[in-house]
Amino acid sequence: MTLIIKIESLLLNLWLDIQTMQKKVLIQPLFRTMFKTGIFPYLISVFFIALTTLLCYPLAEKESYHLVSYILLFVVFIMATFMRLGPVLLAAGVSSLIWNFYFIPPHQTLHIEKPEDILMFALFFSIALLNGVLTTRVRRQEELAREREERTNSLFQLTKELSKAGSIDEVLAIAIQEIKNQFSVNTFFILQDGNNILYSTGRLQKEKKLNSTEYNIAEWSFKNGSEAGAFTDKMNSGEYTFYPLPGTKLVPGVLAVKLDRKFPEEKKTFWLTFITQISNSLEREFLAEVATKARFLDESDRLYKTLFSSISHEFRIPVATIMGASETLLNSSHPMNIQSALFSEIFSASLRLNRLIENLLNMSRLESGLLSVRLDWCDINDVFNKVAEDLKDDLKPFSLLVSIPENMPLVKIDFGLMEQILYNLIFNSTQYSPVASEIKLISAHENNELTITVEDKGPGFPESELKNVFSKFFRVDGRKTGGLGLGLSIVKGFVEAHNGKITVENIARGGSVFTIKIPSANPDINNLLLESE
Ligand code: ADP
Q1: pTM exceeds 0.70, yes or no
Q2: Cβ of 476 below 6 Å from ligand 1
């Protein structure tokens, strides 16, 4: 009796060991792959029963065949925990026969003498069978639950990753990586061009080139919304399998996979859910891209039309002036005073034309990103004097008040760009302020920052328009024009090229003030020395 208890506890320990061993990540996959394929598991099951029989053989003589039946049942049970049903049933059948043949008296015959042994044999066979069937079923259910959990987790992970993507390229990169992690296959995407024509994205895997047959298969899969290519029943030539990407509003494209065998049926639903998830994200980005493109086209169209109408309108006036005045001068002789009036008209019309062209050129420099900023230590006095000189005729009817602190240091700016900034602002003041009013040009330098303000006593800006003042083609309705509505947006662009900021405010008692703030370190000896090195 003690022997039986000892053997039982030994077997129990062995069983627990096997359970722990099974759970070990390294061993489990090995066991699984070993036992899941072909006839190998059947051979293994017979081998284990034979081995157990051999080990228990000494007990045959001791009439301990009941104990042997427990041991065999236990071995069948263990097999059921990691083998499929077929090998387990074989083990149950073989172990019953072997038990009968070698252990139930009379030995080495299938004949059973005692009726209770016949009953015992029938019980053994039924228990072995039930044991095998139930254990494999429980195990299968556990496997299914685990698989379901793993799939839910990986879908959650995919959704989480995809939600971070902000462009089609990012969705594709995440999708390819996640598919590789989950299904261990290499994939690439072929996206449509927005007009329902498939083309190789070239965005991610430039080396992926499809030959014409493969392209046809991809196109077929895209058009028919059905998988095609290798290992499918549609156009199964070529090495890729193509899966259409399902979408609600549009089909973003197809997914190409290089498989080495048919996709396992049991994974198919999971695979299709995975693709649908990716496709949804792609579709979302696709639609966003199409909307952005449409907005961009709309915007460019609008800007083009505005520019075109402004140019044709604003250019026509000075050109007509020049043509008219020069024609009058050419066709008849006039007294000197009329001649000089006509020349001065031609001159100011040319200046106006020149300003328009300057603004257009500056705008295109800003838009193309070709604007280069050459910062140098400048005396702000020189810049102010230059602008006042350039605008001396326009400033004649006004009083220009310039204020520069005594201790104003040199400032690091681009002389040419700053001249253009102040030119545009002061020129505007001369255009919109009442004659004889004061225009103030003030500079200050504090905390490594240069501040310049241009203040006038003009009409200011409608409060609701203040936020649009620096937009391209901005004009206050009903106010006289003379430019293209580009001057202030150029000013903003040039200030920002200095890493600075410009703001505009209305003054309560009338007029407006533009404030420019540009970072400008003190030109102390250390800074100057550092630069001369
Ligand atoms: P433009 O080259 O046509 O003058 P700007 O961008 O320089 O274009 O100016 C845009 C519009 O802002 C002008 O058409 C005018 O209506 C208004 N504006 C600009 N400067 C002033 C100002 N100092 N006072 C009042 N209105 C101004």
Answers
A1: no
A2: yes
